[in-house]
Amino acid sequence: MNFTEIKGNWNVLKGKLKQQYGDLTDDDLTFAEGKEDELWGRLQKKIGKSKEEIIDEIKKI
To answer: Mind telling me which PANTHER family this protein's record contains (predicted)?
Structure first.
């Protein structure tokens, strides 16, 4: 799964991430075009995992 696929399925993935990590908010998961690095940074801070680990988890969803 590449970033284009993640972006295309973001609404579904966002809901599943919120189920798995209850402390994530809509603000944490807001995707803005051109601000992918900010999104990854917010996720890394909240979840405590690297970008690669988060991507691996998303692939499993």
So the answer is: UPF0337 PROTEIN YJBJ
First to last CA, the chain: 11
Contact indicator for 50, 41 with CB cutoff of 8 Å: no
- Which of 48, 49, 51 lies closest to 39, judged by CA? 51
Distance CA 1, CA 28 (A): 21
Task: Give the start-to-end residue ranges of the domains of the chain.
Answer: 3-60
For residue range 5-59, list pLDDT tens digits in order. 888 888 888 999 999 999 999 888 988 778 888 989 999 999 999 999 998 888 8
Count the Cβ atoms, other than its own, within 10 Å of residue 13. 19
DSSP per position, 3-36: HHHHHHTHHHHHHHHHHHSTT--TTTT---TT-H
